[in-house]
Each structure stands twice: as C-alpha cells, then as structure tokens.
Design goal:
The complex is a heterodimer of chains A (620) and B (193). Chain A has helices at residues 2-16, 47-52, 57-87, 94-100, 111-147, 155-175, 205-234, 247-278, 303-337, 344-358, 373-385, 387-401, 410-432, 435-441, 445-475, 481-507, 527-557, and strands spanning 289-290, 294-295, 599-601, 604-606. Chain A has 620 residues and is mainly alpha-helical. Chain A has one domain (57-286, 297-606): Cytochrome c oxidase-like, subunit I domain (Cytochrome C Oxidase, Chain A, Up-down Bundle), CATH 1.20.210. In chain A, strands 1-2 form a two-stranded antiparallel sheet. Chain A has a two-stranded antiparallel sheet with strand order 3-4. In chain A, strand 3 and strand 4 (604-606) form a beta hairpin. Chain A is globular, with a radius of gyration of 25 Å. Residues 1-42 of chain A have low confidence and may be disordered. Chain B is mainly alpha-helical and 193 residues long. Chain B has one domain: Cytochrome c oxidase, subunit III, four-helix bundle (Four Helix Bundle (Hemerythrin (Met), subunit A), Up-down Bundle), CATH 1.20.120.80. Chain B has helices at 2-8, 16-43, 56-79, 83-113, 125-156, 166-192. Chain B is elongated and about 60 Å long. Chain B starts with a helix and ends with a helix. The model of chain B is unreliable at 1-11 (pLDDT under 50). The chains are: A mainly alpha (620), B mainly alpha (193). Chains A and B meet through helix 7, helix 8 and helix 9 of A and helix 1, helix 2 and helix 5 of B.
C-alpha cells in the first residue's frame, strides 16, 4: 500500500536527518542530485534580467513578497509605536526621540506624529502588504504553476506591475521623510482633511506624495489583475477545465476581477481629489467654515461623494485582501487533511456570491453620514446576505477537517488559524452590518477589533499559511519547524489577546483615532487594558521578527528539499523540477486528467492531477 | 515567451493579449462609469450650472467617427498586404486623432471665453466635471495615438517585416473603444446627464 510505503520512507528520512528538528512528510519518490538540472531555458541571464527586471513570474512573485514583507515590518513597527502611546500615555521613552527626532520631543510622540503613524500603518497594511504582498505574491507564483502555463499572458506587463508597485513604495516611503511628515488624515483620506493643504501638516506634501503613490499603486494592481484574469482564462494546460482548477486559482481569479472593476473607481475619486487640492475645483469642497480662515470660496462640493467613490473600492478591497487567503486555506486544509475539499462547487459558488455582493454593500461604511434610512436598510439586507456564502465556506472548511488525517504542518496551523479568526471576526460583522447598532458602534474600537480580526490578521494568517506551504517550491528549502510553531502560537494567542478586548472597549463607546484616552473619565477604567494590549502587541511583533529570521536564514541555509512533492499534493506546481527555470517545465507541460482533490480515493493516499483516470476508478 | 503562448493556446481561442485588452477596457469603463454616476449625483444637488456644450464637440464627434472608419480600412489593407494603403490609412487615423484632441481643447477654450470656469475657485462643478471627464478621455485618445505612432514606425521599417496583424488589431479594438466611449459621453452630456 502506498500509504504504508510513505510512512516507512518518512521514518527513514527522519533518522537520516537526526540533527534536524523538522517533521518530514515525504512522498516515497526521492529526487537527489538533479537539483540544478531542472532549468529549461539556458539562455544567458544577467543579474539584472534574472533578479531585477525579471519577467519570470516566480521571480516577480518573490519581489512582491520581499517588498510586502518590508512594508509589513515597517507598518507593524508603526503600530508598536502608536500602541506605545496608547498603552503608556504618560511615560517618556527617550529612545523614541533618538529614532523619531522632532516627532517625539522628550520621548513623547506628538499628536501629529501619532496620526501620521496610524494613517501610514493603515494605508501600508491594506494596500502594500495585504493587496500587493498577498495577491501580488501568490497570484504571480501560483497561477502559471497551478493552471499549467509557462508564464503569465504578458510577462512584460507583469514586470511593469511590480515596478509600478516598487515606485509607489519609494514615493510612500519618501513621504515619511518630508519636513511636514506623511499624510495623517486616516487611510481613507476623506476630504476636507485630504483636500485642504492647510488642514494639518501632513495634508501638505505628505498628501501629494500619498496620492502619487496610490495612483501608481492602482496602475500596478490593474496591470497585475489583467494578467491574472487573462492567464487563468486563456493559458490553462490541456485538460485543465475551469472545474478542475484548484480553489486557490478560483479565489485569485475573483480577487483579480474585483480589483480590475473597483480600483478604477478609486482612481476616479483620486482624480477629483487632485483637482480639488491643486486646481481649486469644488467636487468635494464646499463653503465650509474653517477656523482661522473663514468660509472656503468653494461652492456646492460634497465630501460624501468621495466616500461613495472610496468605499465602492473600499469594500471590494476587503475581499481583494480576504479571497486569496480563503483560496490558499482551502487548498492547504485539503492537502493536510488528506481529504478532498468538502463542497468544491459550493466553494466556487460562494466565492462568486461574495464577489457580486462585494460591489453592493459599500454604503454600510456610511450609515451615519446622513444616508437615507430606507437606502440604509437595503444595504443592511445586502450586507447580512454575505453571511450566507461566508457560512458556506466556514462549514466546508470545518467539514474538510472533520475526520481528516490531519498533519499539523506550520502551513496547516496557520490555515486553521485563518478559519478560527474568520469565524470570530465574521460574527461581529453581523453586529456592524445592522445600521441601528452601527449608530452606537461606528468609529469605535469595536470596528477596529472587527476588521483587524476578520480581514487584517486572518489574511495575514492566510499569507503565512501560503508562505509556509509554498516556501519549499519557492526556494527549494524548508523553513525551520520549531521556530515556525513558536511563531504560530505566539501570533494566534497574541492576535486574540490584542483584538478581543477591543470589542469591550468599543461597546463601552471608546472611539477610535484618539491620541490619548486617559483624560476621559469614561475610559479611565481601560488604562490597564490598553497597557495590556500594547504589551501583547510588542510581543507579537517580536515573534514576527523571529519569522523574518527564519525566512531569510532558510532561503540560504535551510534544509534542502529532496522530494519533488514534499506535501503529497495533487496540484501541478509539484510536478515541476525542484528549482524550476523560466518556463516551469523542462519538457512538455503536463496534461491534466482530474480535479485537484483526489485524496484518499479508492484507498490511495493522493492522486496527482496528471494521473489518467483508471478504468475501474470510482467517480468522486 | 512567444513559444509559450503558441504552445498552450489552441487556434480557436482568443489571443491572450486580445483578451487582456478587453479586460482592460472593462476597467476603463468602470472609471468612466464612476465619473458619470458622480456627475448624475452632483447634478441633482443645488448650485449646478446649466450651459450649452461647445458646438465644436459635434465636429470632434464626427472626426473620431471618421477615424474609426480609417483604422478599419487600415486593418483591411494590412491583411491584404497593401502596405502603401495601410500606411496612408494609419497616418490619416493618427492625424484625425490629434485633430480630435485639438478640437476638444478648442471646446474648453470656447467655454472659458463664455466665462464658464473649468477650474479655480470660481468654477462650478458642472464645468469641472465636463473638463475632467472629457480631459481623461482625451488622455485615452492620446494613448491610442502613441500606439498608432509605434505601429506607424514599424510600418516604415525596411529590414524587419512583420506579418502578424495582432498589433494592428489590438490598436484597432482600442481605437473603436475610445470612439464608442466618446459617443457615450457625448450622448450623456447632451441628453442623459
């Protein structure tokens, strides 16, 4: 029996590597010494064309990943800094002045710096880490490998997509260093704070740079998205029908569709904002009275119009962040439960339903803007409808795990963590989706807790799951398992300890975006709790450093992958050589004969997609 | 990676680049849908200035319609390998495109001469919207002209002969699209918005 054979091979491998602490799950086929011969194209590649202006989707994926990780560290560090202010508003940290200079005179972060940190943290985490870093990495890496293509539909546009993102990063980074600081009006950049240069120091050059950076970023996502869609629909290998696609690909497909249809709307909103800022138009600005200036000369503008345009992207953006994590979790849960994914078609259907509903719920971010209550009630209904496909997905993940032969690899741990966080955060979405409850909860810490759990941390978990699962394919080496488990447990426990208490703060009415809560009688009882949250945040951040060390160390020094298919997975990426060259497969692209979830079928542990259907095989 | 493209796409399938272009057009549609729906929302609010469209927009509409005909003829000529006719038609198309952009610009000048400010503190968002939306469309036409220039230069290259009609088909599709987009905007300004 294959299963038994596999186990014996496993034991042997563990013995051989007694110095290593990794749990080894190997398929019986060992590949040795053929490491570097998988290169398909032997044309000369210089350092520049291979590592910098590469058109290989795998290299572009790594570029997105590393850039995303850079921003994750920076954005995470920012959150530690402002959590320091929230947890210890009266304490002085002289080292802060050393690194932040005039932003923290006497070791106290200034209110302006606090708002700059919060704004940049939000922008960077939402767009640069969880959009570019997540779908940029995995769409690039997995789409050609899993659909069976040599590269993207247009490798050149794909390269441009990264370099637009890179330029956007440089512009955003430089905004941190300008005299007046980066934009500080919140990541949503609502006018008038974003439209009036005099609104705050950050609304000057910082906001100009923010807009330039975001415009470049939109171009990057569009170029990427076009390619992902065209590749999935046009470049699938022989036999790879749409219903034989792994769920990762389906999720990345809907992600790209959402991005391609919603980012242009944000772009339109930004163009009008640029005109209001720089050319004196009145799209968003009206004759509002500004303290010290008097009434503005503008007439008839509506700040609410911006909110509509922003949230028409803003809500699909939530799913742009979440769907790749859902797709990867589906794949990883199935592979490591050694069971077919439960309800494959229902998974696709629910992704489709979420993608449609994503465009029809944006006004639930605007319940308290004076929106017509009747209109509000329609948006309540549409918002709560999302619970249906979300519940289908959760049910299917749990039933996939149910009685599975579960292997708790680090990737699997993070995938399960993703499901846990998605449930916890999703439930509070039902509260917030009610316009009546939202009157109380709007702009409180309840919202912070909700969106961080359901979209921020859970997508982060999806990203980690993806990194842990596909690291062997990306770099040909394994991550260290012990460090991975430590990373997982600190992160999941810490995530709940940071964000769970915020629900109570929010229910008590504690508003978000305040610099210092200790002056309010009503929030004095949260002083200790805030300190607790801040302390945990620092510990969790330290655990991410541990992950970074593990990541970069393992790229160069990690244990080498010796088996083509270390997780015993069915999908096509594991049929490529250990270190696939540009073109992915040295010979013909393999033909696909079945769906990717034949685990435990007819007593066989797993049947790769490339295996022809046997005559006596049962239907799945 | 052209080998890769040919390998994995069967003859019946749409070329990936063509498909990518269609998705990109969908994306552009969303951008203009956002702007024109913002226009409708704003129009129903107070302080909306009503004014007559510049008359030259009628002529520019005719110009861009004509350019669609010429690029269609260019593609036909290329497929028939009548290269001199092909060069003539893409040159005409490019000139008509530039003429269109200039006419739109004259339209803006016309509004300003009637003291309808497009930008600045005295502007009304009705005129600003017209300026932004029409201006954005002009930028897209300009993109088409640049693409035309690229294939124009290629058409005069003596050394390298290219028999693939794909680039011209791509530019042609894009050109018809910006044409149709302007027709939509023109109808929108006149009768819907």
């Amino acid at each position: 029996m294959t299963r038994a054979g596999g186990v014996i091979a496993d034991n042997r491998t563990i013995k051989d590597q007694s110095m290593s602490n990794e749990a080894v799950i190997h398929s019986p086929v060992e590949v040795a010494a053929h490491d570097e011969h998988g290169e398909h194209h032997h044309h000369h590649e210089t350092f520049i064309t291979k590592y910098v202006f590469s058109q290989d989707h795998k290299m572009i994926a790594k570029q997105f990943l590393i850039t995303g990780m850079f921003w994750a560290v920076l954005g995470g560090l920012m959150s530690v800094l402002f959590r320091l202010q929230l947890g210890y508003p009266d304490a002085s940290f002289p080292w802060l002045e050393t690194i932040l200079g005039k932003w923290a005179p006497g070791g106290h972060i200034t209110p302006a710096a606090y708002y700059a940190l919060v704004t940049t943290h939000g922008t960077v985490l939402v767009f640069f880490v969880l959009t570019a870093g997540l779908s940029g990495t995995f769409a690039n890496f997995l789409i050609p490998l899993q659909v069976g293509a040599r590269d993207m539909a247009s490798p050149f546009l794909n390269m441009l997509s990264y370099w637009f993102f890179f330029t956007a990063s440089i512009v955003m980074l430089s905004s941190i260093f300008v005299e007046t600081g980066p934009f500080s009006g919140g990541w949503t950049a609502y006018p008038p704070l974003s439209a009036l240069g005099d609104a705050s120091p950050g609304s000057q050059t910082g906001m100009d740079l923010w807009l330039i950076s975001m415009a470049l970023f939109v171009v990057s996502s569009l170029l990427g998205g076009l390619n992902y869609i065209a590749t999935i629909l046009n470049m699938r290998t022989k036999g790879m029908s749409m219903t034989r696609l792994p769920l990762t690909i389906w999720a990345l497909f809907f992600t790209a569709v959402l991005g391609v249809l919603s980012f242009p709307v944000l772009f339109s909103g930004f163009i009008l904002l640029i005109f209001d800022r720089n050319f004196g138009t009145s799209f968003y600005l009206s004759d509002i009275f500004v303290n010290g200036v008097g009434a503005l000369p503008n007439e008839g503008g509506s700040a609410i119009l911006y909110q509509h345009l922003f949230w028409f992207l803003g809500h699909p953006e939530v799913y742009i962040i979440l769907l790749p994590a859902m797709g990867m979790a589906s794949e990883i849960l199935s592979v490591n439960s050694r069971k077919p994914i439960f309800g494959y078609m229902a998974m696709i259907g629910s992704l489709f339903a979420i993608a449609i509903l994503a465009f029809l719920v944006w006004a639930h971010h605007m319940f308290v803007t004076g929106l017509n209550p009747f209109l509000g009630s329609i948006f309540v209904l549409l918002t709560l409808l999302i619970a249906v496909p979300s519940a289908i997905k959760v049910f299917n993940w749990l039933t996939t795990l149910w009685r599975g032969n579960i292997r708790f690899t680090p990737g699997m741990m993070f995938a399960i963590g993703f499901v846990s966080l998605f449930i916890s955060g999703g439930l509070t979405g039902i509260w917030l989706g009610n316009s009546a409850l939202d009157i109380h909860l709007h702009d409180t810490y309840f919202v912070i807790a909700h969106f961080h759990i359901v979209m921020g941390v859970s997508s982060m978990f999806g990203m980690f799951a993806g990194i842990y699962h596909w690291f062997p394919k990306m770099y040909g080496r394994y991550l260290n398992n012990t460090v991975s488990y430590i990373h997982f447990w600190i992160t999941i426990a810490g995530a709940y300890m940071i964000f769970w208490p915020m629900h109570y703060e929010g229910l008590a009415g504690m508003p978000r975006r305040y610099f210092d809560y200790s002056n309010w009688e009503s929030f004095k009882n949260f002083v200790e709790l805030n300190r607790f949250i801040s302390t945990v945040a620092m510990i969790v951040f330290a655990a991410q450093i541990l992950f970074l060390i593990n990541f970069f160390y393992s790229i160069f020094k990690g244990r080498k992958v010796t088996s083509l298919n270390p997780w015993g997975a069915n999908t096509l990426e594991w049929t490529t050589p250990l270190r696939p060259g540009h073109g992915n497969w040295p010979g013909e692209i393999p033909e696909v004969h079945r769906w990717p979830y034949d685990y435990g079928k007819d007593g066989t542990e797993f049947i790769p997609q490339t295996t022809p259907v046997g005559a006596d095989e049962s239907h799945h | 990676m052209m080998t890769a493209l040919q390998e994995s796409s069967e003859p019946k399938r749409i070329h990936p680049h063509k498909f990518t272009l269609w998705v990109a057009l969908g994306s552009i549609v969303m951008m203009f849908a956002a702007l024109t729906s913002a226009y409708i929302v704003k129009k129903n609010q107070s302080s909306w200035l009503e004014f007559d469209l510049p008359r030259i927009f009628w002529y520019s509409t005719f110009t861009i319609l004509l350019s669609s005909v010429t690029i269609h003829l260019a593609l036909k000529a290329f497929k028939a390998r009548e290269m001199s006719r092909y060069r003539l038609f893409i040159t005409t198309t490019a000139i008509l495109g530039v003429l269109f952009i200039l006419m739109q610009w004259w339209g803006f000048r016309d509004l300003e001469s009637r003291h309808i400010a497009l930008t600045g503190p005295k502007s009304n968002s009705a005129a600003s919207f017209l300026f932004v939306i029409t201006g954005l469309h002009m930028v897209h036409v300009l993109g088409g002209v640049i693409a035309l220039l690229v294939i124009f230069v290629r058409a005069y290259r003596v050394r390298v002969k290219n028999y693939s009609s794909l680039p011209i088909e791509l530019v042609g599709t894009y050109w018809h699209f910006v044409d149709a987009l302007w027709i939509y905007l023109f109808i929108f300004y006149n009768w819907i918005g």
